């Protein structure tokens, strides 16, 4: 298998993230820029490089600035070290960080569906209350997990 450049993998992942967040299929995105869904898959995997004019087209269709595709670039991608395969250690995430490709919560379908559902809630006050509740539950869950790891018993 040819080695993918970490920047190509990152840009492809960001493209997939945005497309999924918009609820757009690979076929619909491909049609909008004159490509097949198979070509979109290759771009999203990072196995094909995206040229600058094509990236500009994707940015217009996905309604983001071109810089969006380079946001949150991991440091090893900047070093230009190619990676082989997909989602392996040594992928675009730094080893040992919570943002290795296979663990990145921002590229999981569940996260994107949650964000889409959240923004479908029309009433701002209700959305804000749900946001605060999820933050509180997450903080309590994290505190309990940390307490258990330190040898403390979780509260009943």
TrEMBL record:
Describe the location of the HTH cro/C1-type domain by residue ranges. Answer: 15-69
InterPro entries per the record? Cro/C1-type_HTH (IPR001387), Lambda_DNA-bd_dom_sf (IPR010982)
Residues of the region (Disordered) are 79-100
Q: This chain belongs to which protein, by name?
A: Helix-turn-helix domain-containing protein
């Amino acid at each position: 298998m040819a080695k993918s450049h970490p920047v190509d993998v990152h840009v492809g992942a960001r493209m997939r993230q945005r497309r999924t967040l918009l609820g757009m299929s690979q076929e619909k995105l491909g049609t909008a820029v004159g490509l097949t869904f198979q070509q979109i898959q290759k771009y999203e995997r990072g196995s094909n490089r995206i040229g600058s004019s094509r990236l500009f087209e994707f940015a217009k269709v996905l309604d983001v600035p071109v810089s969006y595709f380079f946001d949150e670039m991991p440091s090893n991608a900047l070093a230009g070290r190619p990676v082989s395969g997909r989602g392996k250690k040594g992928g675009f995430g730094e080893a040992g960080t919570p943002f290795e490709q296979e663990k990145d919560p921002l590229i999981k379908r569940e996260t994107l569906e949650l964000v889409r559902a959240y923004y479908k809630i029309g009433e701002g006050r209700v959305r804000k209350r749900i946001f605060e509740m999820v933050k509180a539950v997450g903080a309590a869950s994290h505190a309990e997990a940390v307490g258990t790891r330190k040898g403390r018993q979780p509260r009943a």
